[in-house]
Amino acid sequence: CKFDLSLNYGFLYNPKYEIKMDFEGESEPKVDTTAPNEISELKVTELSPNGVKFNYALPSDYDFEKVVVYKNGSKVSELKQNVFLESGLEAGKSYTYKFVTVDASGNTSNGVSKSITTPSNPVDPEPEEDQKLSFKRIAGDDRYSTSKAFSQEIPANSLDTVLLSSGNDFPDALAGGVLNKTLNGIVLLVRDNQSVINEQLNEAKRVLKDEGKIVILGGKSAVSQNIEEAFGEEFPVERIGGLNRFETAINIAEKVNKSPEEVVLKYGLNFADALSIVPYATVNEVPILLHSNGDSLQEDVLEYIKNKSSVKKVTIIGGTGVVPTSIEDELEHLGIQTINR
I need a labelling partner for 7 at 20 to 30 A (CA). Which of 29, 84, 166, 206 fits? Predict the structure, then answer.
């Protein structure tokens, strides 16, 4: 028997919910074969002799899954972001890129293509007398999307490590940021929020090499077990933590350089001084140690310096209000040859 049952109760009726029943047999499930919409507004936003950056608008399809990028007919990347960067191109050479959208059912669009020609290596021009300065802002809606915006300046599949640090406090990210050079990585800020986790996980997938890994900075009170498990489903995960920020900094220091000639010592309960020194420490692979408010070195920092006979120089960051002169005297008695503030 066949019949139609319509929910026709005056103002309650909505044809969207018309019910059709067929008792002659089960109907076959409908298979989605509709291709997704294309990307739009495709444009080249940066072009150099060795690289290119594309920006575009993603389709609004509810089941949009990813964009697959082809270069001269060969697949080079899969991503969900509205930006694609590639380095390692040859100067003065033409390339054709094709951006194909894919939905959750595996349907693909015809793709949108754009050809480029990288400029030849330029000869440095004579500086103009009235040359204008240029600037660029890297930003997001919050600290998490801003950290992702920094990461998106890095070409896809180019890093060995993504360092995860709590966005709720500063010490682990600052001490761990020095590992960027040592581990060929970048710091992404995270918090125990599924939307943030998903965004940073997708960025990690974009930027990491095939054998890339995740390094979590801090204990489980800083970066939760939930976050560790989410990333652990996709990548090998290592955690560098401690009972507090000071112990975490010591454990990070061991990863930065096992036999450092110099260490940085700074006040661990505020971030401003550390921000200024991280670039120097990163380039030179100098561990950053944190000092709590006191007239003498805390025990873990004291033991670290005693056990590192390679340390000849300690650079103190900040004034005597946060790291008093008595610390300098203690370091001198430990045999440190050079103490800079």
Answer: 29
The whole-number pLDDT of residue 1 equals: 46
b/e map of 24-39 (b: 16 or more CB within 10 Å)?
Answer: eeeeeeeeeeebbebb
Backbone φ and ψ of 193, nearest 5°: -140, 125
Instruction: Provide the 8-state DSSP code for 108.
Output: B
Helix, strand, coil: what percent of the chain each, to 5?
25, 30, 40
User: What CA–CA distance (Å, rounded) separates 248 from 245?
Assistant: 5
Rounded Cα gap, residues 305 and 331, in angstroms: 9
Across all residues in the chain, what is the average pLDDT?
86
Averaged pLDDT, 20-25 = 49
- Cβ neighbour number for residue 341 with a 10 Å cutoff: 14
The neighbouring-strand residues paired with 112 are 99
Amino acid at 150: F
Maximum separation of any 2 CA atoms in the chain, in Å: 97
- Is residue 27 scored above 90 in pLDDT? no
Do the strands 262-267 and 313-317 form a parallel or antiparallel pair, or are they unpaired?
parallel
Q: Give the pLDDT score at 173.
A: 80
C-alpha–C-alpha distance, residues 221 and 118, integer Å:
48
Global pTM exceeds 0.70: no
Q: Rounded to 5 degrees, what are φ and ψ at 7? A: -80, 70
Helix (H, G, I), strand (E, B) or coil at 260: coil
3-class secondary-structure state, position 21:
strand
- List, for residues 162-177, the tens digit of each pLDDT value: 999 998 887 788 778 8
pLDDT at 249: 87
CA nearest 97: which of 49, 53, 151, 59? 53
| Torsion of Cα atoms, 231 then 237 then 238 then 239, to 10° | 20
In the chain the beta strands, taken as DSSP E runs, fall at 2-5, 19-22, 40-48, 51-57, 64-71, 74-79, 83-87, 94-103, 112-117, 159-166, 185-190, 208-217, 237-240, 262-267, 288-291, 313-317, 338-340
| pLDDT band at 303; cut points 50, 70, 90 | very high
Cα–Cα distance measured from residue 114 to residue 25, given in angstroms and rounded to the nearest whole number: 50
